[in-house]
Amino acid sequence: MANKWVYLFSEGNANMRELLGGKGANLAEMTSLGLPVPQGFTITTEACTQYYEDGREINEEIQGQINEYIGKMEEITGKKFGDLENPLLVSVRSGARASMPGMMDTILNLGLNEEVVEVIAKKSNNPRWAWDCYRRFIQMYSDVVMEVGKKYFEELIDEMKTKKGVTQDVELDADDLKELASQFKAEYKAKIGVDFPDDPKEQLMGAIKAVFRSWDNPRANVYRRDNDIPYSWGTAVNVQSMAFGNMGDDCGTGVAFTRDPATGEKKLMGEFLTNAQGEDVVAGVRTPMPIAQMAETFPEAFAQFQTVCKTLEDHYRDMQDMEFTVENKKLYMLQTRNGKRTAQAALKIACDLVDEGMRTEAEAVAMIDPRNLDTLLHPQFDAAALKAATPIGKGLGASPGAACGKVVFTAEDAEAWNAKGEKVVLVRLETSPEDITGMKASQGILTVRGGMTSHAAVVARGMGTCCVSGCGDINMDEANKKFTLAGKEFHEGDYISIDGSTGNIYDGVIPTVDATIAGEFGRIMSWADKYRKLKVRTNADTPADAKKARELGAEGIGLCRTEHMFFEEDRIAAFREMICSDTVEEREAALEKILPYQQGDFEALYEALEGNPVTIRFLDPPLHEFVPTEEADIEKLAAAQGKSVDTIKAIIASLHEFNPMMGHRGCRLAVTYPEIAKMQTKAVIRAAINVKKAHPDWTVKPEIMIPLVCEVKELKYVKKMVVETADAEIAAAGIELEYEVGTMIEIPRAALTADEIATEADFFCFGTNDLTQMTFGFSRDDAGKFLNAYYDAKIFENDPFAKLDQTGVGKLMETAIKLGKPVNNKLHVGICGEHGGDPSSVEFCHKIGLDYVSCSPFRVPIARLAAAQAAI
Ligand code: ADP
Ligand code: MG
Ligand code: MG
């Protein structure tokens, strides 16, 4: 049997989201729930994939089925495409499996042409509406086909408004809109080179193609990468008969949430605009009214809508985000989905749903996107400073958080300033999808126009970036990069602070403080801890980091990098002396100066960890990273060593390496300079002994980690001197102390020979940053130069340094575990690369049987939640 590429709404259901996309599946589900949905059909995501396989063509089989379904739709609606009696007008809407807000364009009122528009103008006795529909159709269709056409059409509209002396689109009359329609068509012909299509079927195929093509536009590609959506999924296309919100004052269109997407509070939230269509509400062109006001204007439709909200929430057992239209007082549902929400709201809603008996604790844990928690862990305004400050303006608190930074006016500037290390707040009239990368580069976003569902608000919430929208008091002059608010003129680079919870705007800098886990956050995390199997440790080099991580739930340190401890003023001098020494004795003397500092560092770490495990990695980077570069420092070192400046310079020059990352580093340093490893061993063991004496009830069991091992004999060699040194220290102290010596697995050869290495190692820790670069054979410091080209060419979908490459690097990890565990049943295994805090990588670590993940302190809650989700 031939493939089925097309489904009527009445043929699908919510479980078919892979095939029908989220929007299509939910339109089908709403249809079967008996809700008022304008009917239509969905062309599957498989058809999109097929379109790309066929070299960006819709093949005949698919075209045939589309035509067949137009016929079915004509039967259902009793209208006909291009008909002069009763014409069928449709929307063409994209809809991927995961919602991608604003990423792909919708075309409304398709099916209109010069003849049909006259027919509907006459029949409805509403020529303004008819021409408004037509000009919108040409505009949207052209924009999609031309890909970046928006601005041309907006210019034409602005010119028309100026000519007529009006400010609002709704003030344009039928003749103006008719005039605009013909200007638009001329613009289309000028840009594309052919006439604007009149045949509805040709329009429809063109539109479907454009939606398929939009799956591959740069914005969509960036969004997918940020949100872990595979390119291979494709998008579905929904063809739906139109409901008209722009027929007059008893019509309108709106969006609403069943609970507050910013706070999670259980109350209907949303916005409504009379005599409007489609994106008008979210585009921020006119400021919409709050949904509650709809009760007065459209009492019947509003009452019905409230019932629909309850039906949908009970059905999906989650907060719903809905789009609807009222045509001549009658309600039509156009979309529903589990609403995007802030992290704060997500936690509250999950807890409330448990308390309302709608969800189990495990389901509540599974509902939270771990990546979202990030925002809660970001700083908030210092409460005292905030109280003392007076807001200079107020907008809508569209996405919570605190942002403080320098004002910039364009997305490009935001990116450029951010690249220079500046913190910026992007201030715009309104944002559009093109601004996404600039929004990402900003601490916060402030817009003059737009409501809670404006583009800026939706995208900012998705990114977890603070956003204040719709501050109409701002007098904006984008062209000259300045604005005035509360009588003050702000220029590029001036400091501003915004509060995404209250919507308050402050002049200047308001200091921020770290966040804590409490309330609903605490409840969800305690549920998560019940389910997870993986332990979560942290990468911390200082007692302060360790303490923070413990507060956030870390159960130990998985990686303490000792190298930063060498950079403090006194130590670096001693360490440089060590590097420039000629004899072992001189080296030992220099290291002897560092020992007490290092011991103190470790004591403080053990104290902070209160008996939880601490893994200390021995010196890893190449020595040239420590030598002086400034002339004055070189002279100082020469004097201290009694050597000439030239001799020192020669030593420094001799440390030069072509590929330092693959050079003289890691355990290779311990082989060539055993004194360093011995000194570090003494520091670790002496610190442990002291802390154990002070706290006899704590388990103090140092884990010494040898980096960059590629061969068992190498580990054996280094381990021998560690053990001899450690045992001598322990014997001298006359105390019992257990310790472990393990290794990082970060060179492919180590993974491949893990059965040998495991005979000498008490533990493995995957250093996936190095393991990734060694496996791919490219350096994480240089990959940025070509990775973008790899994304564009679809060779890579993600940065392998951010998201673990499960296929290659993951296979090495699995291999190492499979080889290592059988030869050493005490072997414990963890991961301490950046990936330790990435949810999908955590899930993978759970799957292949790691004992723990270790990540930076602020990612600890994310890892805890991701580990629970992997286990549920
Ligand atoms: P997005 O995925 O960007 O939200 P949609 O496909 O939901 O795009 O379309 C955007 C808007 O267009 C909808 O919110 C709705 O207002 C309007 N729209 C889409 N289809 C129809 C329709 N059949 N009738 C009336 N309005 C529609
Ligand atoms: Mg929508
Ligand atoms: Mg490493």
Please summarize what this structure is:
The chain is built from 35 helices and 31 strands.
Salient structural properties:
872 residues; alpha/beta; D-amino Acid Aminotransferase, Chain A, domain 1; Glucose Oxidase, domain 1; TIM Barrel; eight-stranded mixed sheet; eight-stranded parallel β-barrel; 35 helices; 31 strands; 16% strand; binds adenosine-5'-diphosphate; binds magnesium ion; magnesium
What does this protein structure show overall?
- This protein has 872 residues and is α/β, with parallel strands linked by helices.
- Among the domains are: 252-338, D-amino Acid Aminotransferase, Chain A, domain 1 (2-Layer Sandwich), CATH 3.30.470.20; 379-513, Glucose Oxidase, domain 1; 532-555 and 746-872, Phosphoenolpyruvate-binding domains (TIM Barrel, Alpha-Beta Barrel); 562-741, TIM Barrel (Alpha-Beta Barrel).
- The chain is 46% helix and 16% strand.
- It has 35 helices and 31 strands.
- The strands form 6 sheets. The protein has an 8-stranded mixed β-sheet.
- Strand 14 (402-408), helix 17 and strand 15 (424-428) form a beta-alpha-beta unit.
- Helix 14 (361-367) packs across helix 20 (519-531).
- The model has no long low-confidence stretch (mean pLDDT 92).
- Adenosine-5'-diphosphate (ADP) binds next to strand 3, strand 9 and strand 10.
